[in-house]
């Protein structure tokens, strides 16, 4: 049976990375005529009380009501911040996003909390200020971020064009939030002045509904996607918001059915691009925007069709949900490949409801664990995502009553995404990846790994710094966090891994019973590395980790190097022995003193996104080969 299991895994690993499959779950579930016959019209699908239903809102907000109102009170005299032309142009001029995004964020945060407070209280105290906020957003040229508009509009500048409207992550978020505001508070805004709600409805039409139906070239729509097309979290994120806008605003049955079906065609492109194993190649930090937002989309679609258009019974959809629970290491740490942060865990409310939809007790119990770990925080509040805030309130009591638990599966293998997780009873947690160097939010990190002991990081993946213009430009791989040199990987013949879909793993094997993971790194490096073979094998044992590199080169050009990124400063205690440390935990790394010369580099973390996770510095341990050889083997052991 053991060998059969290994053979099955070897078969899956022989498949091409990110094996594209035309699944079209949604389109197979319902064509446009079936969508039309299933849709609940005139917003009768909305599961929340109307504004005037005070007993309904008292029940929905429950014990959170006083806090919701208190938070809203803080913005009764809020001064709306004008975002100037030069604030937008700062992104073009300096690459810095915050100049535009920070005031934008403060404005939308104020409006969301004012709306929630008015819904909770229902006395009209917040309506004038909500009217101010709505009017403010109608006055804005665009709801899109400076960092995103240039990609979609004709004028390639971060200053939004008045000639067209762009749907991207933030404009879609703001659109759906304002659509909910219109749905709940139209009559109250009319009492201030009918022009306010009338103008808002017009803005939603020209900024969201019309562009979505009239344009097919927003990159995230992916209508013409091929197996090589990047379709990432933007797709379900934007489509979920667009779907919400249509369902809350459009009452013509023909137009509504056409729009809903169009979103289904688009979201199928994301599902098709996703791997059947369910892993999120963008990492846990993006799960809430990718698989989590797919859940939101599917839930809203199910609500609007009374459950007649639903794909929650598809095993892949369940896999995509359970990934977030399986990627949790403990004490707030997660497996953080690509641009994901090492700190996080996920959104308890989304995870819980997703788990209910796909009948995963693992997800529901994990969500309860996260909720209880962070019970002091405002669980219900999801910023400008009003749907999630309302759903959090609706599921609050049930989540509180769910027994908390963490997944404790000894080993997990994602055969298409090529992620491997292993843990043992000695407190070790290990994760490694294969894949290829053109994944969404890619780092050049094929074959890299992380190692934790007792939920403390020892060998790490730094993650990514604050996003700037450089992050998603042709200069992305000049950033150190993106380079293989700053992952737990070798430099072969003086050569690092390269970016591109052709740079990938091969010959992967995974033996769950022996806790062994092996892959060939040769194809992840350019020809200049002169690597004929570089097989890296990891084996997690009771007392630690064994890492072995077996290689063959066609020529020698420069000494090979083994790099390790560490949370604590490595200390050489004797030739061939280095002490690794993290949060007071110490491990012993052994290497052949005749093969390597160790050096340690301190990496100062001046970027807040990195320092809030790791502190002021991390370290890079470099083992440089003392001699160059065509054929060889390196053995590293890490033990308590």
Question: Can you walk through the features of this model?
Answer:
By secondary structure, the protein is an alpha+beta fold. The protein is built from 20 helices and 21 strands. Mean pLDDT is 95; it is low at 1-17.
Quick tags:
single chain; 640 residues; alpha+beta; eight-stranded antiparallel beta sheet; five-stranded antiparallel beta sheet; 20 helices; 19% strand; disordered N terminus
Summarize the structure.
The protein has 640 residues and is α+β, with helices and mostly antiparallel strands. The protein contains 20 helices and 21 strands.
Any chance you could write out the topology, listing elements then pairs?
Blueprint: H1 2-13, H2 25-29, H3 32-38, H4 54-61, H5 65-73, H6 85-94, H7 98-121, H8 127-139, H9 146-152, H10 169-192, H11 194-214, H12 234-249, H13 253-273, H14 284-287, H15 291-304, H16 315-326, E1 328-330, E2 333-334, H17 348-357, H18 361-373, H19 386-400, E3 411-414, E4 419-423, E5 428-433, E6 436-437, E7 449-453, E8 456-459, E9 490-491, E10 500-504, E11 506-511, E12 516-520, E13 531-541, E14 544-553, E15 561-566, E16 571-574, E17 577-582, E18 585-590, E19 596-604, H20 608-614, E20 617-625, E21 631-639
Antiparallel strand pairs: 1-2, 3-4, 4-5, 5-7, 6-10, 7-8, 9-15, 11-12, 12-13, 13-14, 14-21, 15-20, 16-17, 17-18, 18-21, 19-20
């Amino acid at each position: 049976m053991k060998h059969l299991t290994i053979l099955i895994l070897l078969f899956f690993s022989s498949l091409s990375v990110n094996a594209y499959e035309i699944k079209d779950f949604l389109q197979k579930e319902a064509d446009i005529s079936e969508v039309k016959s299933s849709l609940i019209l005139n917003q009768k699908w909305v599961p929340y009380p109307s504004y005037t239903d005070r007993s309904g809102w008292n029940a929905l907000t429950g014990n959170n009501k006083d806090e919701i109102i208190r938070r809203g009170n803080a913005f009764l005299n809020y001064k709306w911040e004008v975002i100037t032309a030069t604030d937008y142009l700062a992104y073009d001029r300096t690459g810095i996003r915050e100049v535009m995004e920070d005031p934008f964020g403060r404005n939308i945060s104020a409006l969301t909390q004012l709306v929630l407070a008015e819904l909770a209280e229902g006395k009209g105290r917040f309506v004038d200020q909500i009217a101010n906020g709505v009017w403010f957003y109608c006055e804005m040229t665009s709801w899109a971020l400076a960092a995103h508009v240039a990609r979609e509009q004709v004028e390639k500048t971060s200053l939004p064009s008045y000639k067209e409207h762009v749907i991207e992550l933030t404009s879609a978020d703001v659109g759906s939030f304002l659509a909910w505001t219109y749905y709940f508070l139209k009559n109250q805004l009319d009492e201030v002045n009918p022009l306010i709600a009338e103008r808002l409805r017009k803005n939603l039409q020209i900024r969201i509904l019309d562009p979505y139906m009239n344009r097919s070239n927003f990159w995230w729509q992916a209508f013409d996607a091929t197996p090589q097309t990047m379709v990432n979290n933007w797709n379900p994120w934007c489509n979920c918001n667009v779907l919400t806008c249509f369902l809350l605003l459009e009452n013509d049955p023909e137009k509504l059915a056409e729009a809903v079906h169009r979103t289904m065609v688009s979201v199928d492109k994301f599902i098709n691009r996703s791997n059947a194993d369910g892993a999120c190649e963008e990492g846990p930090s993006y799960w809430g925007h990718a698989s989590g937002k797919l859940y939101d989309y599917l839930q809203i679609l199910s609500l609007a069709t009374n459950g007649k258009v639903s794909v929650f019974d598809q095993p892949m959809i369940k896999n995509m949900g359970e990934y977030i629970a399986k990627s949790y290491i403990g004490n707030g740490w997660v497996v953080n490949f690509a641009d994901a942060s090492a700190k996080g865990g996920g959104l308890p409310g989304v995870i819980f409801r997703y788990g209910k939809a796909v009948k995963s007790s693992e997800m529901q119990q994990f969500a309860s664990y996260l909720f209880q770990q962070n019970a002091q925080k405002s669980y219900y509040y999801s910023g400008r995502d009003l749907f999630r805030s309302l759903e959090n309130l609706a599921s609050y009591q049930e989540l509180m009553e769910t027994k908390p638990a963490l997944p404790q599966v000894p080993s997990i293998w994602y055969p298409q995404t090529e992620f491997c997780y292993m843990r043992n009873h000695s407190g070790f947690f290990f994760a490694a990846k294969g894949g290829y160097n053109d994944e969404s939010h890619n780092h050049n990190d094929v074959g890299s790994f992380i190692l934790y002991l007792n939920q403390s990081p020892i060998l790490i993946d730094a993650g990514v710094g604050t996003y700037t213009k450089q992050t998603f430009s042709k200069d992305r791989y000049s950033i150190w966090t993106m380079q293989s040199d700053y992952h737990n990987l070798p430099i072969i013949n003086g050569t690092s891994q390269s970016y591109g879909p052709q740079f990938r793993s091969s010959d992967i094997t995974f033996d769950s019973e022996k806790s062994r993971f092996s892959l060939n790194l040769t194809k992840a490096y350019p020809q200049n590395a002169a690597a004929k073979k570089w097989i890296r094998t990891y084996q997690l044992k009771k007392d630690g980790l064994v890492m072995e590199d077996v290689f063959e080169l066609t020529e020698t050009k420069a000494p090979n190097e083994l790099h390790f990124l560490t949370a604590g400063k490595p200390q050489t205690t004797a030739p061939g022995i280095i002490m690794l440390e993290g949060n007071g935990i110490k491990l012993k790394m052994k290497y052949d003193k005749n093969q390597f010369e160790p050096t340690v580099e301190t990496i100062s973390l001046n970027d807040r996104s990195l320092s809030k996770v790791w502190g002021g510095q991390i370290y890079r341990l470099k083992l440089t080969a003392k001699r160059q050889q065509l054929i060889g083997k390196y053995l590293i052991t890490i033990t308590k």
